[in-house]
Amino acid sequence: MQVTVAKSFFKKIDLLKEKAEQEIKNKASDIVSDAVDLSPVDTGAFVESWQINPRGERTSRSRSSANRPKLPEGSKQAKREEEKSRLLGRVESFDLEQLSGFTVTNRAPHIAEMNKSDRLRTGYSPSEIQAVLKDRFR
User: How many helices (H) and strands (E) does the chain have?
Assistant: First the structure.
């Protein structure tokens, strides 16, 4: 008895790996894009505090809004785009062969104040963003 595995079988496996890697990057990109798009922007500190890391890596970002001027209305979306670009670049740098998951964090020191505020002019509160992301990306 003999079983032969054709070379095309391995090509199909490689193609599946490539598709899976692209889906992982797409999902991570969707998550960071939604997090940034939902974020309130006043001084830019909160949106600058988003970070995405491979699971187990402890790098975080924390930007304070203290003593920072409010951004002009016209530059708030530009700040979102700048931070989204930074985070998407981080996603592209992931070594997917070694990746066992990823975490998205925001360590802005003023999150508690933002959650209590009923006067956010743009975006969602941090707790609402967390709920939306968990619901969309279970």
Answer: 5, 2
* CB-based contacts of 115, cutoff 8 Å, min separation 6: 125, 126, 127
Distance CA 63, CA 46 (A): 7
Note the pLDDT tens digit of each residue in 12-42: 999 999 999 999 999 999 999 999 999 999 9
What's the full length of the chain, in residues? 138
The pTM assigned to this predicted structure is 0.85
Contact (CB, 8 A) for 96 and 26: no
Angle at 130 between CA 127 and CA 136, to 5 degrees: 140
The answer to whether residues 14 and 28 touch, using CB atoms and an 8 Å cutoff, is: no
